[in-house]
Amino acid sequence: MVSTKVPELLLDIHLFTLLLNLVTSNCTNIFSQKHFSQYCQQWIALHSAAVGGHIQICKFIMTKIVEKNPRRESDGITPLHIAADKGQIELCKVLMKDNQIVNPRNNIGSTPLHCAAKKGHLEVYELISEGSQVINPIDILGRTPLHYASLHGHLMICQFILENTIVKNPQSIGKTTPLHLAATDGHWKICQLFFEHFSKLKGYGPKSPEDFNEDTLLHCAANYGHILVCWVILDNIEDKNHLNDEGLTPFDLVLKKRFFAICNMISSSDDMEL
User: Fold this and answer.
1) Contact 102, 129 (CB under 8 A)
2) Of 48, 117, 105, whose CA–CA distance to 79 is shortest?
3) Distance set, CA 2 to CA 5, 6, 7, 11, 58 (Å)
4) pLDDT at position 110, please?
5) What is the pTM for the complete model shown?
6) Which of 102, 8, 119 has the alpha carbon at shortest distance from 54?
7) Radius of gyration of the chain from its Cα atoms, rounded to whole angstroms
8) Residue 67's pLDDT is what?
9) Least confident span in 68-82, 98-112, 163-177, 238-252
10) Domain ranges of the chain
11) Rounded distance, CA 77 to CA 131, Å?
């Protein structure tokens, strides 16, 4: 079995080599600050330090380079993306200091806020959102941080966004909303949270929104047999018989897949109480 520690070990060795060259240059006066800056940019030393969570090394490197949060040429990822993804809040503070662009985008439009939301790092999300120029950044797929928090089941981040942001029913490519993603993946508490915050979600309402395939929230949950999500949705929508682009209602889907408990739930939903 291959150890997952190998990549991090190699990065640490790379940093050691980098700093060894620096120390040697101080003795021989050959390795100038200009050369050091070029070396850092070539090997993206700051990214390597961020991966390992080496705060002091990051601070040191940042004193030697002009661009304090450089984009990696291959994918546009910055050290702040890495720190946010790993939930390293103290490193995020270091990387954000004196930076004008707090929430930079990579080559697919993803920001550190997307990274923190995707991994469920609430404190990091709060920190970056305080200094971010864009509250609801959208990536190349049309997805906001709320999409990723909903998809991956991070309730606390969803709650923070809904309580502190005026969300305008964000739709990604395919008209998919965060609530569609939560329903599809069976995150019933997040679905319940969304319905509780409808006053901030202009566009949602008793009528369930449809995605690109004309699937409602109930279609999404029913198709995967998420009984608790179906329960929440049925208690909050009026139209439970909407036809998708295949001409199927949610009841048709669960009957076809033999989810009989959900069949009974839908057929008796008028008498249900959550």
Assistant:
1) no
2) 48
3) 9, 8, 11, 17, 29
4) 96
5) 0.80
6) 8
7) 24
8) 81
9) 163-177
10) 1-67
11) 19
How many other C-beta atoms are found inside a 10 Å radius of the C-beta of residue 133? 9
Picking from 55, 45, 54, 117, the residue whose alpha carbon sits closest to that of residue 81 is 117
- If one counts every other C-beta atom within 10 angstroms of the C-beta of residue 80, the result is 28
Tokens read off for 269: 């939903």
Structure tokens at 220: 């999404």
Count of residues in the chain: 274
- For the chain, what is the HEC assignment? CCCCCHHHHHHHHHHHHHHHHHHHHHHHCCCCHHHHHHHHHHHCHHHHHHHHCCHHHHHHHHCCCCCCCCCCCCCCCCHHHHHHHHCCHHHHHHHHCCCCCCCCCCCCCCCHHHHHHHHCCHHHHHHHHHHCCCCCCCCCCCCCHHHHHHHCCCHHHHHHHHHHCCCCCCCCCCCCCHHHHHHHCCCHHHHHHHHHCCCCCECECCCCCCCCCCCCHHHHHHHCCCHHHHHHHHCCCCCCCCCCCCCCCHHHHHHHCCCHHHHHHHHCHHHCCC
CA atoms within 13 A of residue 237's CA, in its CB half-sphere? 24
Answer whether 121's CB lies under 8 Å from 83's CB: no
Place of tokens 């699937």: 215
pLDDT, tens digit, 9 for 90 and up, residues 2-13? 444 444 444 554
Query: What pLDDT score was predicted for residue 61?
Result: 86
pLDDT tens, 135-175? 789 999 999 999 999 999 999 999 999 888 876 567 777 78
